[in-house]
Write a structure and sequence with these properties.
Helices cover 40% and strands 16% of the residues. By secondary structure, the protein is of the alpha/beta class. The protein has two domains: 86 residues, 3-Layer(aba) Sandwich (Rossmann fold), CATH 3.40.50; 134 residues, NAD(P)-binding Rossmann-like Domain (Rossmann fold, 3-Layer(aba) Sandwich), CATH 3.40.50.720. The strands form three sheets. It has a six-stranded parallel sheet. The protein has a three-stranded parallel sheet with strand order 3-2-4, with helices on both faces. Helix 1 runs parallel beside helix 10 and helix 6 packs parallel to helix 7. The longest helix is centred in the N-terminal third of the chain and has 21 residues. It is globular and about 55 Å long.
Amino acid sequence: MSKILDGKLLSKQIKDELKFQVDILIKSGKKVPHLAAIIVGNDGASLTYVSSKVKSCKKIGYNSSLIKLDEKISEQKLINEINKLNQNSDVDGFIVQLPLPKHINEEKILNQIKPSKDVDGFHPSNFGKMALGLETFIPATPYGIMEIFSRYKISLEGKIVVVLGRSNIVGKPISILMSNKGNPGNATVILTHSKTNNLVNLTKQADVIISALGIPNFLKSEMIKKNCIVIDVGITRVKNPLKPKGYEIVGDVDFDNVIKKSSYITPVPGGVGPMTIAMLLKNTMHAYIRKTS
């Protein structure tokens, strides 16, 4: 039977560690870290995600700000809001919640964020530093995945890792991090995407599979070898009238069947999701320390 990689439990440990640091700052009479978030529009999933970040800040003693903007806001007005946060010395780090409305260029917006406050780790200068193995902000979801391997003491050295999906948010950065020198790291990584041929042949070779596709139940048990480690990044709302909210959260992995064959697996929910928020908070602490040291 597969061992569950409990992201909820690990995220609580990380938040407790951060709260301990905040308590020391408060006792010393020092300012506490301040995380801000900009959200454009009323996307339900984004609002839920951002509100959970705000709640987490409150729980560990961070200051937090939430800037809600109209879905029809112009690109320039959004840039103006970003510049306000760039120039606000009280804000240590901030994020612009994705996705953005179609009329706004995401790449252009993310490039406006001051690299020293880019706690999502999406700015090209931070991404480049990560690729070179230099100290920087690591995108929160890949950072959370690496932390899972680290805290569960699972070695990646020499293992074949297949990553499903090549997004700049998860697929590309996690493939870089896992192939970098270090522990966890030193893996042989295969980055797959929609144009990859013979995908099942690759997944059947994998010691580790990381799925970040957003396609419910895509990864089946017959696609993996026995004792494969499976990390499910996918989070999709699927209609289910039997559930109180009328939907359920489903991952990329056919969990009930894959769990019988894998050695370790992350659940959805309760796996990578909570770790993403925890690592965003950790990045904010890093930003605070760099600024004040």
